[in-house]
UniProtKB/TrEMBL annotation:
The gene is purN. This is Phosphoribosylglycinamide formyltransferase. The record marks D144 as: Raises pKa of active site His. Its EC number is 2.1.2.2. It catalyses: N(1)-(5-phospho-beta-D-ribosyl)glycinamide + (6R)-10-formyltetrahydrofolate = N(2)-formyl-N(1)-(5-phospho-beta-D-ribosyl)glycinamide + (6S)-5,6,7,8-tetrahydrofolate + H(+). GO terms for cellular component: cytosol. Catalyzes the transfer of a formyl group from 10-formyltetrahydrofolate to 5-phospho-ribosyl-glycinamide (GAR), producing 5-phospho-ribosyl-N-formylglycinamide (FGAR) and tetrahydrofolate.
Amino acid sequence: KRLVILISGSGSNLQAFIEKQQQGSLGGTIVSVISNNPEAYGLTRAREAGIKAVSLDHKTHASRESFDKELAEEIKKDQPDLIILAGFMRILTPEFVQTFRGKLLNIHPSLLPKYPGLHTHKKALENNDEFHGTSVHFVTEELDGGPLIAQSQMRLIVGSESNEENELNEQQVMQRIQKLEHRLYPEVASWYLNNRLTMEKDGVYFDHKKL
Ligand code: GRF
């Protein structure tokens, strides 16, 4: 099975995929990594792992539609079975999403449907949420709104009273959530690659006999 991974930044999730592939438990091969940001460190990670690294700068396009068209063409060259959005910070057009319907996965750092969009750690802390986490979902036209597949969560509030020594700051929460992501996301992708899960009519179908 063939994977294409889309990134915009550091690519720590990409790294987790590379490691799972190297361990032989991903169920597929990462054929290319594409970044809309030419400076993304994830491109270096890809090259170091011997994976084709492509930079497609969205700033060279006048519209979202024209960027997405070029992106779709680049992806089609690689004939992927699965496309992984790993910190890809671009909103995709409905045309793009329809082209690859049922083959697109995203990870979002909140317990969806809570906190779609940006600044999720800040929001969870400000709201004194007891739990916070990360979600893997199929991508639909709705931002961070496609059917949920799996989540990892952690406790933010320890005990009943807020205690400064125990309080996490935004940076620490982000680091802990990313650790959860690095375990969860490649695992969910391996379910997909092993035909254990599909998207049907905007819902998720699990083959529990295989899980
Ligand atoms: C992840 O936390 C992901 O949930 C969010 O962006 C971050 C990407 O980090 N959308 P990295 O580029 O994989 O290190």
